[in-house]
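We store chain and fold; thus.
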Amino acid sequence: MSNSKLVYSTDVGRIKEDVKEETLGDGNVRVRPEKKGRGGKVVTVISGLPLAGNDLKAYAKKLKKRCGGGGAVKDGTIELQGDHVDVMVEALKKDGHDAKRSGG
């Protein structure tokens, strides 16, 4: 039944899905600007944070508030709208992370 796409059975009820475990970052926190595929708009991408799930979302909310913009958590990375690389490196270092600037 591991290859089955069965979600519900009248005999058993809801079939539990295999949940992918989120991997924690490797401790090398990288902050980079990125604009590829975004219509020329710059986005600050933070990767490698040793947080997962709701902890990562809560930390992203704190960082979004710090830079006064929006953003999202995607695939274990935080994407912040705008070019806030230097501000985020300083904020991450202040919070005890070994953050480094990478890319442009």
In short: Residues 21-101 form a domain with the Translation Initiation Factor Eif1 fold (CATH 3.30.780.10).
